[in-house]
# Entry
Amino acid sequence: MKDLIIRKMLAEDWDSVAKIYQEGIDTGIATFETKVPTFENWDKAHMSNCRFVAEQKDEILGWVALSSVSNRCVYGGVAEISVYVSRNSRGKGLGKVLLEHVVSASEQEGIWTLQSGVFPTNHGSIKLHETTGFRMIGKRERVGKLHGQWVDNVLFERRSSVVGVD
# Structure
């Protein structure tokens, strides 16, 4: 994607990030969330050092961020990925660029395992994870309800070949 910039997400980006998040929610296959949280709640739930936006011509086209999976120190190097691409930018390789960027950044932060839960019907996200070095490690059946219906979650994991190898 020509003239694409990947940069750290700023608080001022929230309106654009929230709009893209809402587009993901609207698909019904991206998240169990049914409404976009406030920036304050989102900010508390995501690591401050691994959140990025993809910007082109002053427009944010997508974002990626990590969340800690546990506050226990033994899981300090494990994080969960959220990656969202705007409706008009899907299918152009932007998700791959964002994931590759956060993988590199996460390794610089000492993270050795990235994980992601994907709805089985989200074929684009499944393909994205598979093409960026994630492997499917299982499926959690009926793990949560969305609009009153049970939904499974396919679990993906990517183990660093740089961090935590010794």
